[in-house]
Specification:
With about 190 residues, the chain is mainly alpha-helical. The protein contains 6 helices and 4 strands. Strand 2 and strand 3 form a beta hairpin. This is Ion-translocating oxidoreductase complex subunit B.
Length: about 190
């Protein structure tokens, strides 16, 4: 009987030790589904443009949660820096961007010049461009995040980035847009 009792005590001790080690690891290292990462990611503009040095907004959110600076997002601008500083209870720093804060932009394909190569479709991180091979392409304005990644691969240079001007529908925007929040504008007004 004492051998069984000793085995149970040893097994319990091993389980407690393993639980303590795993508990420490969960606190020490951020894991998938971390609430703070999700909150940070929700504040980022979801352009997936890579201008912060990370391949998208979620990896940048993970980096911020692990101590990286909060001021590396040009599309988000100073408003995003302020929002992140408030969330994380840190001082807001000036935006760290060579070109400074950028206005809200949307891609526009001059359809008459489009040769249908599909290179812009492949480059778009949010699937905001539709078209088929050897057919003209167009941008779904409500989906476009203005990341500018479609411009460089275009072999005929038929993509322009147009600033979304203030209008009756968007004049109150005071922080970066989430995906799907862009409001379609008349092409004449945007040009």
């Amino acid at each position: 009987m004492s051998l069984v009792l000793a085995a149970v005590i040893a097994l319990t001790a091993i389980c407690l030790l393993a639980g303590a080690i795993l508990g420490y690891a969960a606190v020490r290292f951020r894991v998938e589904g971390d609430p703070i990462v999700e909150q940070i990611n929700a504040l980022l503009p979801q352009t997936q443009c890579g201008q912060c040095g990370y391949p998208g907004c979620k990896p940048y959110a993970e980096a911020i949660a692990n101590g990286d600076k909060i001021n590396k997002c040009p599309p988000g601008g100073q408003a995003t820096v302020q929002a992140l500083a408030g969330l994380l209870d840190v001082d807001a720093e000036p935006l760290d961007a060579a070109g400074g804060e950028k206005p809200r932009m949307v891609a526009f394909i001059r359809e008459a010049e489009c040769i249908g190569c599909t290179k812009c479709i492949q480059a778009c991180p949010v699937d905001a461009i539709v078209g088929a091979a050897r057919q003209m392409h167009t941008v779904i304005v409500d989906e476009c995040t203005g990341c500018d990644l479609c411009v460089e691969p275009c072999p005929v240079d038929c993509i322009d980035m147009l600033e979304i001007g203030s209008n009756v529908q968007n004049w109150k925007w005071d922080r970066p847009l989430a995906p799907g929040q862009l409001i379609a504008t008349d092409r004449e007004q945007a040009a």
